[in-house]
Amino acid sequence: MPIAPTVETATRHDLHNRAVPSRTFSPLAPVDLRFAITGLSAGGFDPSIAVDSDGAWVATRTPDGPATLHFTQADSITAEAWGPGADAALEAAPGICGATDDPSGFEPMHPVVQRLVRRFPGARVTRTGAVVESLVRMIVAQRVTGTEARKGYIRMARELGGPAPGPRELTLPPDPHRIAELAYTAFHPWGIERGRAETLIRVASRANRMEEAAEMPFADAYARITAMRGVGAWTAGTVGLVALGDPDAIPVGDYHLPNTIAYALVGEERADDNRMLELLEEFRPHRGRVVQLVRAAHVAAPKYGPRSAIRSFEES
After folding, report:
1. Helix, strand, coil proportions of the chain in percent (round to 5)?
2. Using one digit for the tens of pLDDT, what is the confidence trace for 233-270?
3. Other Cβ atoms within 10 Å of 109 Cβ, number
4. What is the number of alpha carbons within 13 Å of residue 15 lying toward its C-beta?
5. Which residue from 90, 231, 276, 289 could staple onto 23, CB 3.0 to 4.6 Å apart?
6. Sheet holding 6-13, edge to edge
7. Is-contact 76 26, C-beta < 8 A?
8. How many CB atoms lie within 10 A of CB 96?
9. How far apart are CA 230 and CA 75, in angstroms?
10. How far is Cα 242 from Cα 124, in angstroms, rounded to an integer?
11. Spatial separation of the C-alpha atoms in residues 134 and 149, rounded to whole Å
């Protein structure tokens, strides 16, 4: 896995004379910082992530403790970090913002994808290495509407996260140790029913084994992740695009993605997973990169029929 070359490491001091370490690096390919960082989130209003005119902010947990990263971009990208896990977060920073993603060898012949490459040259595949954080976000989103997923994750993060270090008001992702200690009924006020709650508890209870997947070959990583009951191809594929840096990852089983891919590539309004995989086959081993490009373009197939109802599990 190539890594972005480090240009400079430095330390500045803030207004309170506190040391703020930083790392400046050159991405392997153009990076759209907003697209990369918002792609890590649990939909809109993720309390651990913010993107504004001052750059992008990410609160995360590292083996050394909590940390907050602040990314700014010019010709290169600079990351500053706060918290006990600052050094570990800075080490991971190039992957977190997509700067280690290497699109060399991706030369699509499909005219639609060629246009998307030209329009969105900075649509990168990230490699956060934070497998459990990504799994928790994706498990909460299993088999529910986007609104349910966002509300459930935000409520859980506020209860189990705690304030992030640094000058920006952010909430840390949920603490796996606290998740592992809960009974499934504790998740009901957050709109998370027994099935997803028990999957979250299993993942959190084996957090160290899940985190090891970040250093494995992709096939072994997916085998490790999907061996966990309740974690299937959709969850693993999404984790691949966010935490593992796999440019060929596809979230098979997504409710909307087959329609979106088919509509974007060939104008078909409806498709299933098999049709999606058929259309993406020519792009192997960059099928996930095509998914990212289509997402960057905000393509949406026409929708028909009633919307799914928002459900409550508080009394389940």
Report:
1. 45, 15, 45
2. 999 999 999 999 999 999 999 989 999 999 999 999 99
3. 8
4. 2
5. 90
6. 6-13, 19-25, 77-82, 65-73, 55-62, 49-52
7. yes
8. 26
9. 43
10. 10
11. 13
| Structure tokens that stand for 170 in this block | 């952010």
Cα–Cα distance for residue pair 70/68, rounded to 1 Å: 7
Virtual torsion, Cα 293, 301, 275, 280, nearest 10 deg: -10
Print the SS3 string covering 178-206.
HHHHCCHHHHHHHCCCHHHHHHHHHHHHC
End-to-end CA, the chain: 45
Q: In the 8-state DSSP scheme, what is residue 69? A: E
Distance (Å, whole) CA 191 – CA 149: 8
Out of 88-102, 109-123, 192-206, 298-312, least confident range: 298-312
pLDDT by residue (tens digit) across 14-72?
655 578 999 999 999 999 999 999 999 987 789 999 999 889 999 999 999 999 999 99
- Say if CB 23 and CB 78 are below 8 A apart: yes
Residues recorded for the chain: 316
Helices 257-266 & 287-296 angle (0-180, nearest 10): 90
* Radius of gyration in angstroms for the set of CA atoms belonging to the chain, rounded to a whole number: 19
Write the single-letter amino acid at 239.
V
Q: Report helix, strand or coil for 255.
A: coil
Task: Supply angle C-alpha 295, 296, 302, rounded to 5.
Answer: 50
At 307, which amino acid appears? Answer: R
What is the DSSP track for 19-58? EEEEEEE--SS---HHHHHHTTSSSTT-TTEEEETTEEEE
If DSSP codes are grouped into helix, strand and coil, which group holds residue 250? coil
